[in-house]
C-alpha cells in the first residue's frame, strides 16, 4: 500500500524550533478602551512580557500558520492575514477552533457536534460543513490563539 502524502498547509510557516526568550516592556495596567486614567504610572522596572511564554504552551507541538479564511471566520475573531498559533497537543472538543484537512485542503473552522455528527461552523453567510458519517475528520490542531495585525 502506498503512503499518501499529505501536503503542508499552504500558509504553514513552520514548527517552532527554537524557543527564544525576548521579553519586552509591558504596561503595568490594562489599557482602557474608554477613558484613560491619568493618575497611574505606566511602566515599572519588572513589568516585562515574553510573547513566546504567553502564546505558546507546548513548543514541540505548536506551529504557526497564516489565516486565509476569506472572511469566513470573522465572527470567531479570525481575519485574513492573522497569525494562527496552532497546538497539536490539545484534544479537539466542541467549541474549539480547529485546523482540519478537508477535501485535500486545509481550513480553519469552529468544531461542533450535533446529533452525533461533526459540524465545522463558519461565520454568518458562510455554510457550515456537516461531516458525513463515512468520512474521518482529520484535525491537525487546535487554534490556541491568533494575532491580528493592525498596521
TrEMBL record:
Instruction: Enumerate the SUPFAM superfamilies for this protein.
Output: LexA/Signal peptidase
Q: What EC number(s) is this enzyme filed under? A: 2.7.7.7
The enzyme class is transferase
Q: Which GO terms describe its molecular function?
A: DNA-directed DNA polymerase activity
Question: Membrane spanning segments where?
Answer: none
> Is Ribosomal protein set as a keyword in this record?
no
Domain named Peptidase S24/S26A/S26B/S26C: residues: 27-143
> What's the short name of a Pfam family annotated to this entry?
Peptidase_S24
Report the InterPro entries cross-referenced here.
LexA-like, LexA/Signal_pep-like_sf, LexA_repressor, Peptidase_S24_S26A/B/C
The alphabetical list of record keywords is: Nucleotidyltransferase, Transferase
Protein name per UniProt: Translesion error-prone DNA polymerase V autoproteolytic subunit
Gene behind the chain: umuD
Amino acid at each position: 500500500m502506498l503512503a499518501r502524502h499529505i501536503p503542508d498547509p499552504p500558509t504553514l510557516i513552520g514548527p517552532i524550533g527554537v524557543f527564544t526568550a525576548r521579553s519586552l516592556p509591558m504596561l503595568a495596567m490594562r489599557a482602557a478602551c474608554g477613558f484613560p486614567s491619568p493618575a497611574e504610572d505606566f511602566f515599572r522596572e519588572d513589568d516585562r512580557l515574553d510573547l513566546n511564554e504567553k502564546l505558546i504552551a507546548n513548543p514541540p507541538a505548536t506551529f504557526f500558520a497564516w489565516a486565509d479564511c476569506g472572511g469566513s471566520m470573522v465572527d470567531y475573531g479570525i481575519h485574513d492575514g492573522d497569525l494562527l498559533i496552532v497546538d497539536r497537543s490539545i484534544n479537539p472538543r466542541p467549541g474549539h477552533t480547529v485546523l482540519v484537512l478537508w477535501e485535500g485542503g486545509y481550513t480553519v473552522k469552529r468544531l461542533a457536534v450535533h446529533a452525533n455528527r461533526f459540524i465545522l461552523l463558519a461565520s454568518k453567510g458562510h455554510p457550515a460543513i456537516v461531516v458525513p458519517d463515512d468520512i474521518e475528520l482529520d484535525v491537525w490542531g487546535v487554534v490556541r490563539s491568533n494575532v491580528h495585525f493592525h498596521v
